[in-house]
Amino acid sequence: MIYVSRQEHFNAAHKLYNPAWSEEKNAEMFGPCANSNWHGHNFDLIVTVKGEPSPDTGFVIDLKKLSTLIREKVTDKVDHKNLNLDVDFMIGKMASTEILAYEFWKILEPHITTLSDGRGKLHSIKLYETPRNYVEYFGE
Asked: Has 33 been annotated as catalytic?
C-alpha cells in the first residue's frame, strides 16, 4: 500500500463559542478563542490518499488533480473567510479544527475514488491550526 499526500494552505478566522452557554462559561472553556471579535489562523491541510499505483502512470492519484480538487471543494471556500459566518458547510456547527477536519473529509471522500481511477481511497485529513496544534481524521 502506498500513501500519497498533498499539502495546501489557507487562512481563516473563527471563534469557539457555544450559544447555549453564558459568556462567562464560554470564556472559561475557550479562553481567548471565544473572543467576540474573532481570531485567525494560518491553516495547513494535508490530504493523504492510499492505494496501489497504476501500472500505466505509476501514480496512486495524480497530485495535480488532487490539488485542484482540494482547492475547488475546500480551500477556495474557507480561505480568508470567517468559518462561523461565511462557510456554508460550517453554519450551525462549532468551528473547531476537529469539526472542520471532519467536514473536509465528508466533502473530499466521495471524489477520491473517481479521481484516482478506482485505485485510491482517502486515508486521512491532517489539519494544522498552528505549527504545534493539529488534528487528524481517518474517517472512523
From this structure: yes
Residue type, 59: F
Indicate which residue of 33, 41, 111, 123 is catalytic.
33
pLDDT in tens, 70-90: 999 999 999 999 999 999 999
pTM: 0.95
Determine whether 9 is an active site residue.
no
The helix-helix angle for 97-115 and 63-70 (nearest 10°) equals 140
Q: Which of the following is catalytic: 9, 39, 52, 80?
A: 80
Q: How many whole angstroms separate alpha carbon 56 and alpha carbon 59?
A: 8
The partner residues of 124 in beta bridges, in order of sequence, read: 48
Tens digit of each residue's pLDDT (9 = 90 or more) over 34-81: 998 999 999 999 999 999 999 999 999 999 999 999 999 999 999 999
For this structure, is 109 an active site residue?
A: no
Residue reference for cell 495546501 = 8
Query: C-alpha angle with apex 93: 130 to 45, nearest 5 degrees?
Result: 30
